Amino acid sequence: MRESINKIEDSKPLLNYSPDHKYLSHTKPSSFPGHGIKICILDSDRMRIADMSAMFNLMGYEVLSLDYVIGASNTIRDFDPDVLVLDVNMPAITGEKLINVLKKNLGVLPTTILYSDMDAEELEKLAMIAGADDHLVKNGTYLHLLNRVKYYATIKRFS
Fold first, then answer.
1. Lower CB count within 10 Å: N or C terminus of the chain?
2. DSSP string computed for 2-17
C-alpha cells in the first residue's frame, strides 16, 4: 500500500500508521528560517527516527522519516530529498540489497549517508561499493551526523 505525504501547517510531526504498522513521519521546519533542504531518514529504530527528525527540524530542514523498506522507494521519490540518511541494518534485507533496490527504483540516489551500527570497516566497504557519499557509525550522539548533513546540505544549496 502506498502512503501519501500529507501537508502539515506546524512543526508537529504527522504520524500515519497503516494496517501493517509502517511508520511515516513528515515534519516541516519550525520557526527557524527554512532553506528548502529536505532530509529523508530510513531507519528501523522509531526512537532514533524521532530524535533525528526533531534535531533536523530544529535546524530548519524538512524531514521525512520511514521505518520500512517495502514501498519506501515510491515515498522517497515523491518527497525528492536532498539528503538520504540510510540505516543499512534494516530487517528482512541486507544493506547492499537495500541500496540496490533504492538505486533501481529511484534511478539516481540523492546524496546518501550510510548511518549504521555495523563494523566501521564493513560500513566503509559497503559505502564504497554502493557509491554512497558518506558513512558514519552510530555512536549514541547525533552531532557528527548533523555536521555531515549540514555539509552536504550547504553544498546542495550553493550548487
1. C
2. ---PPP-SSSSPEEEE
Q: Which amino acid is at 34?
A: G
Residues in the chain: 159
Q: Contact at 8 Å (CB) between 63 and 25? A: yes
User: What is the rounded average pLDDT of the residues 38-66?
Assistant: 91
Q: Which amino acid is at 148?
A: R
Mean model confidence pLDDT for the chain: 80
Nearest to residue 88, comparing CAs of 137, 16, 158?
A: 137
pLDDT at position 4 is 34
The torsion of the CA quartet 76, 65, 85, 55, rounded to 10 degrees, works out to 140
* Amino acid present at 111: T
DSSP H helical segments within 59-138, as ranges? 72-79, 95-106, 120-130
CA separation for the pair 67, 87 (Å, rounded): 10
Q: Amino acid letter at 31? A: S
d(CA 92, CA 136): 22
